[in-house]
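Practice set, problem 2.
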Amino acid sequence: MERKAINNIITPKIFEELCDTIGNENVFDKVEERTCYSFDDIKGKSMPDLVIRPHFTEQVSSVLSIANKHNIPICPRGAGAVLSGGAVPIKGGIALDLKNMNRIVELNARDLTVTVEPGVVTKDLQDEVAKSRLFYPPEPGCAGFSTIGGNVAECTGGMTGMKYGVTRDYVLALEIVLPDGSVINAGRKTLKSVAGYDLTRFFVGSEWTLGVFTKITLKLLPTPEKRGTVMSLFKDIDSALNTADSILIKNHLNPRSFEFADKTCIDAVRDSTEGKIPEEAEALLLIDVDGNEKNVANDISRIDAICRENSALRTLIAHTDEERDTLWDIRKPVATSIFKVTSMKFNEDISVPRSKVREVLEKVYELSKTHSLQVAAFGQIGEGHIHLNVFCSNAEEVEISVQDLVFQILKDVVPNDGTITSGLAPHETKIMQDLRRMFDPKGIMNPGKVFV
């Protein structure tokens, strides 16, 4: 295949070497192909020089070996569903699309494990293991199209994180292609593996900066017998937070999911709720519980009573799967529905200990008034994980007012034992940089990510 070099990174000779190694049909250099890989769910864009779609570990190994030899950046990609910019090839080079590596390699119901390739879609995996009455708990909001590889790279959590944890809690073993093309295995297909360092933890959440995982072994759980859902609406945020404290702290309940949304979020979805949300509602709680039938019925009854004790305007209880889906269909589209009330927004995720949620939210709303900017807040209140959306009218406002507001908010988050999506302490950064150089001395793996 003849071509001209796109730039000095991908020369005709390198292009031919890649095509000869993994096949012309897996290498793409047309602009219309590459454009699709220049962004993820954030607004920033950067074009890769090539797109490669491997099918097997051996092909990934060959690509990385060639890239390492010629100092070509590699940006692996799942579904591009993240908001961290992890899938954006900001240094150009090769976008490594893993969607064709989408096989469920082994489901072992007796051992409660499943081994998959990185391109398997999260919801597809959950549906498949459910046929064996098994349960893969991590459930990001984008589970319908996000991939397991991307989830591992980002260490995604989701709506079940409070009770069941995040992706790292389910990764037992990884097959990994290192930047030089060598293939290693980390971890074991056993629940207990305590010899030596836990290498899997280095790679989970690494944003593909240390290598490419080509097989992932995950822990599964038995499917809970019963699930129940309660949605409660409140006249103010304080009443909702009091209710959350009562459920979690005073009554020691442990919900499967515990979601919160403020008035701005409620207003964004109100038109599609068929009158379920009172006009005066300024806060929403959505609570899922699971377990055996008796315990679920008891938990639902207690949560209902607690909501009423805290002056809930309305409490809705789902008794069937269809009713539960109806309630969750109010919460799930919040992030996209916000665009009904603003044409532009700036996102930041914050996590604080649950006991600090009230204090941090109060500060967020106080600062938003000071800066004359509207803020929408929603998220997993049971984990202290809040998605902040700051409304803005133009790019200039983002550069000045919005970033100043976000900076002020973050100054309050970190002293409250909190963190942000992109937040690392200096000593953490130093250790991680040293680790990264050890695995990837040439710096080809997703450069510019995690830290510069």
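Problem 2, part (b): a different protein.
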Amino acid sequence: MKINAWCWAAVLLLTACDKAPAPQESFAGLGSEAADFAQVVPGKVFSFPEDHGPHPGFRIEWWYVTANLKDAQGHVFGVQWTLFRNALKAGPVHAGWRDSTIWLGHAAVTSATRHYAAER
């Protein structure tokens, strides 16, 4: 009787085993090949103010604004704003809804006792 129970337990355990699931596609295609995008290389010369804006040939870039502020009562605040640009595919940039770029914005304001954040 005991051997029968062990056999059934072994059968149940073995039938519950399965191959590992296939890896999921990366978020928004970011796991795809990056070979078609411009590569970051040493010695790149930047030209401002033109290079403050987006560079469509690159896959990912982001911009930061940070500040330390003080109000009229002397309370200090930290402010941070970030804008991320992620291209889903290399090639020409299209206007409107046909654009294959994902944009994400994040903002935060902190004080000594509070933290506020939002992202879209």
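Answer key, part (b): Residues 27-119 form one domain. The chain has one helix and four strands.
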